[in-house]
Design a protein that fits this description.
By secondary structure, this protein is mainly β. Helix content is 4%, strand content 41%. This is Carboxypeptidase regulatory-like domain-containing protein.
């Protein structure tokens, strides 16, 4: 009895199957079998250009097994393609089925529009291998390597030589396509862009309040290129600005309970001077009109000092040598770029003196700031029965620090703060916050290069 195939199956065989011919040896001298003279992978990623044979041809790597490596920029949700034999759309392998991810089975004789294979996603830039077996019709796409080219360098700022620096955005383009975007490190200005393929790239550097810059870099052989230092110059800004948030809301009562967190945290009890000189925590914040400083400390018969740098436009004020001051001279030095311009000091004893605020008007002289111009509270820590542990809070208006009036500050203003415990005149001390090497209490000169930075204005306006 004869058995007949259903008509639908018969039509499918006629339209999607190809009778296998005699195996060929292709290319000449290759000992692998194939039914075709050539195989290409053609798709939307190269404009469906079947005539671009040199860039689309696949390599016969085993019997009936073809491979082609193609570079893709990531991310790509999907790609569309066909395998085409003999440089002829009539020998196109595609599918009328759904997306099968990065592997599946193709169908022959799919030369109509829309009969392509949809595969993806390709989540990583790199070289992807297309594999196709003309016998089983199975295909697979796998990542074989990620480009290892790298561009690195430094972004510097003409008007800011002390970290933390402003954050710069570095955008990287290849031709007209943006391939990467990174940020510069605010502590050292460094940036790097990795996983770049060979080619020519244009880098654009931008930061708020600065003129943009650009440079061109070429990567060859996936090498690493040092792009050097790019210096951004300030864009035109006014003579003054106003403070930007985030703001704190502080009542100057010595409580410290309204501070959300400390700027620098330490532990009372770890100083070699014990409760005669120790620092527990430094708090720094600001609002639209004032700088606020909080301090948890322990001291007796020693000095508690807070040094402040505001980078005032008056370049004649401030000192680099705290040991030369006419008020609370102590053996602390400061970097050239961050002189101490204000000082808050107290002598902690049974009959304490201070704390008071003074303006450092030259390398050796200080001037009293009227007590009505600022607020200060210094209260005991009731958990310490010795009475040596205390809390201090200070509010200093910008009008005192910058003398610009109407709560104005310098464009891109930053205020740097460091606090120390110190012995008597011309001595150093055992502790600073933030920590600085050399604060060992031996009396030797100590450079206070590490200061906490409070950013007051971020946009220059």
């Amino acid at each position: 009895m004869k058995r007949f195939l259903p008509l639908a199956i018969l039509i499918f065989i006629i339209s999607c199957a190809k009778e296998e011919g005699n195996p060929l040896i292709n290319p000449p001298g290759q000992a692998y079998r194939t039914q075709y003279n050539s195989m290409q992978v053609v798709g939307d990623f190269q404009g469906w250009n079947l005539n671009d044979f040199e860039n689309t041809k696949m390599t016969l790597v085993a019997d009936y097994q073809w491979e082609k490596i193609v570079y893709f920029n990531a991310p790509q949700d999907s790609i569309r393609f066909k395998f085409v034999a003999n440089r002829d759309w009539n020998y196109a392998f595609g599918t009328q089925g759904p997306d099968t991810g990065l592997s599946g089975y193709a169908q022959p004789n799919c030369n109509g529009l829309g009969d392509h294979i949809t595969a993806g996603p390709l989540r990583q830039a790199g070289y992807w291998k297309f594999q196709f077996n003309e016998k089983t019709l199975r295909y697979q796409i796998t990542l074989v390597s990620t480009p290892r080219g790298k561009i690195y360098g430094v972004v510097a700022f003409a008007d800011d030589t002390v970290p933390p620096y402003p954050e710069a955005t570095v955008r990287v383009y290849k031709d007209t396509l943006q391939v990467a975007m990174v940020k510069s490190d605010t502590l050292n200005g460094k940036y790097e862009v990795k996983n770049l393929d060979d080619g020519t790239y244009k880098l654009f550097f931008q930061a708020t309040g600065y003129n943009p810059e650009s440079l061109t870099v070429t990567i060859s052989g996936w090498n690493e290129v040092n792009a050097g230092t790019v210096v951004l110059t300030p864009s035109a800004v006014g003579e003054y600005a106003f403070a930007d948030g985030p703001f704190v809301s502080i009542t100057v009562d010595g409580s410290l309970s309204d501070w959300l967190s400390a700027a620098v945290m330490d532990t009372i009890g770890d100083s070699p001077w014990g409760l005669y000189g120790d620092l527990g925590a430094l708090y720094v914040g600001h609002d639209a009109q004032n700088l606020y400083i909080g301090l948890h400390y322990a001291a007796r018969d020693n000095a508690v000092i807070i040094y402040i740098n505001v980078n005032n436009s008056d370049t004649t004020d401030g000192t680099l040598d705290g040991n030369s001051l006419d008020w609370f001279p102590r053996n602390f030095q400061f970097p050239d770029s961050t002189p101490a311009e204000f000082i808050i000091a107290k002598w902690a004893s049974a009959t304490p003196y201070g704390p008071y605020l003074r303006h450092i008007t030259s390398d050796s002289t200080t001037q009293e700031v009227p007590s009505s111009d600022y607020s200060i509270a210094d209260v005991p820590d009731t958990t310490d029965p010795t009475g040596r542990t205390r809390f201090m809070e200070v509010r200093i208006p910008y009008d005192v620090l910058y003398n610009l009036g109407q709560s104005r500050v310098l464009p891109f203003a930053k205020i740097r703060v460091v606090t120390v415990i110190a012995g008597g005149d011309h001595w150093n001390g055992p502790e600073s916050l933030p920590e600085n090497s050399g604060t060992n209490g031996s009396g030797t000169p100590t450079l206070l290069s590490n200061m906490f930075v409070e950013v007051i204005d971020r946009d220059g306006h």
